[in-house]
Design brief:
single chain; Rossmann fold; 5-stranded mixed β-sheet; alpha/beta; elongated; 343 residues
Length: 343
């Protein structure tokens, strides 16, 4: 979909912390263009990023409105490259992109005032306490020391680290380090959170807890969230909308529910190999993968069940199993994608 222009829509939620009169809004006034309400959260036009031998982004054009957005793709698909461009850490080869109306190249400092970033990999000072680190990050974002200290206490409580706030980060578990990365991303009260693989390195229980925290942060605080992951199940759990890219090209943009429906398959197993069975299903207009004893049929609608039943009866083919399944994310990106060099 080179240069495909797709738009995501979601109702903006700026509630809870911002609308609660008891909440003290510590951060400095966010500058915003006069027409900010009319502008998308993120807008990219013909965005490309090339490395020697690798096209990390290839004519990416998309508008994203506020909400909780999942950003998926196989490793090396261009997700982290896109986030780094949004933060002004990378210069695109061509094209342009804006965040909340600010151009990421010419207004990089303004963008960073509005965005909180949680990197995938640890880059934490191990000999500093949690509260000192988050306070320091708040000061870097422009908060006075007292306000940054109070804001750090709020965010550490929010992510479940209030009791451990005076411990050195070097003594934290992997899950606690992920949580403190989220706390520092929130300390300056951003309008947009960019979370790069927030469940990286966590066990199943830790993943569940982090995803619940991300969802609560987005919905209760009313902050727009872009969450990258290579696991579709994580996106389905917390996100309303989905961006999928492969080799730097936009593959899908739309609601998670629509994507789930599109990727549903009916797994059909028969007792013996009957090539005519798959052929007849295709002749009746069904999309079928395979020709042997195990077939996958695209569940475009409920009539698929009737067609499978009728064809099996007509050919006297015994059905041993029929089960609804869904393609894994990896199956959507079948081609091997080279790793994108970091820059």
């Amino acid at each position: 979909m080179h240069g495909a222009h797709l738009c995501l829509t979601a109702q903006s939620r700026r509630v809870a912390l911002r609308n609660d009169p008891s909440h003290t809004h510590f951060c400095a006034e966010h500058p915003s263009p006069p027409t900010a309400r009319l502008l998308p959260l993120i807008s990219a036009r013909d965005l490309t990023k090339s490395y020697p031998g690798v096209q990390a982004l290839d004519g990416l054009t998309v508008d994203i409105e506020p909400g909780i957005i999942g950003f998926v793709g196989a490793n090396g698909a261009g997700k982290s490259t896109f986030l780094r461009i949004l933060l002004g850490l990378l210069q695109p080869t061509s094209g342009r992109v804006s965040v909340l109306g600010f151009d990421v190249q010419s207004d990089a400092m303004e963008v960073r005032k509005l965005v909180g970033y949680m990197p995938e990999h640890d880059c934490l000072p191990l000999d500093v306490s949690g509260t000192d680190f988050v306070t320091h990050m708040g000061q870097i974002s422009g908060l006075p020391f007292t306000a940054a200290r109070e804001r750090a206490a709020e965010m550490l409580r929010h992510v479940g680290l209030h009791e451990e706030r005076y411990r050195l980060i070097g003594t934290y578990s992997t899950g606690m380090k992920q949580r403190i990365k989220l706390a520092q991303a929130l300390t300056h009260d951003p309008r947009l959170l960019l979370l790069d693989e927030p469940t990286n390195g966590l066990d199943p229980e830790g993943r569940d807890e982090m995803l619940a925290l991300v969802e609560r942060t987005g919905r209760e605080f009313g902050i727009a969230v872009v969450l990258t992951s290579h696991l579709l199940g994580e996106i389905e759990r917390v996100c309303e909308y989905l961006l999928a890219i492969d080799a730097g090209k936009l593959q899908y943009a739309g609601s998670v529910s629509a994507f789930t429906e599109r990727s549903r398959r009916l797994l059909v197993e028969i007792d013996d190999e009957v090539p005519e069975f798959a052929a007849q299903l295709r002749a009746n207009g069904l999309e079928v993968e395979g020709n042997g004893r195990e077939l996958r049929v695209v569940l475009a609608n409920d009539q698929v069940y009737d067609v499978v039943r009728d064809v099996a009866a007509a050919l006297s083919v015994p059905l041993s199993r029929m089960e609804v399944s869904r393609h894994k994310l990896e199956e959507l990106f079948r081609d091997t994608v080279p790793e994108v060099p970091h820059g």
